[in-house]
Every structure is written in structure tokens, then in C-alpha cells.
Amino acid sequence: MTKVTRRGQVTIPAEARERLGIKEDDYVAVYGSESLLVLKKMPLPELDRKLEKAFTESGVLAGEKKITRMVVGRAVREVRHG
After folding, report:
1. Alpha carbon separation from 81 to 6, 74, 77 (Å, rounded)
2. Model pTM?
């Protein structure tokens, strides 16, 4: 059992980390539904492929909607500076 901190962080017990080979700076995917939460060790090449797919899909969507880097930059500045 582990406790969730104020910042939403949890500690994976040492025994579980050792058994699963999870080390500092490794990535884990987090899945959940209702009261079940699952952490899956995510090897970096697999993570890279998932991120690449997400960026490719978002780029296609941005192109379809004619959203440029300049439009995104302007929106970010507006949010940051009010």
C-alpha cells in the first residue's frame, strides 16, 4: 500500500520496483477505470513510438484546422499574460 501526496505523487514500493525492473528515470504508463489504477513499465522505444504517433496525428489535425505555430504561440502568450 502507498499513500498519495499532496502533489498527486505515489511511491512504488521497492519490492515492486525490483520485481518489475523499474529504475529512476524510467517511464510508466498510467491506465485506470473506476477504482482500478494500473501502472505499466513503458520502454523508451515504445514510448517514443506512441509520442510520435500522437504528434503526427495532432499535426494532421492542426493542418486540417489551419492551426500554425504562430497561432499557438499567440494563444499561449494571451493565456500567460491575460
Report:
1. 28, 11, 6
2. 0.48
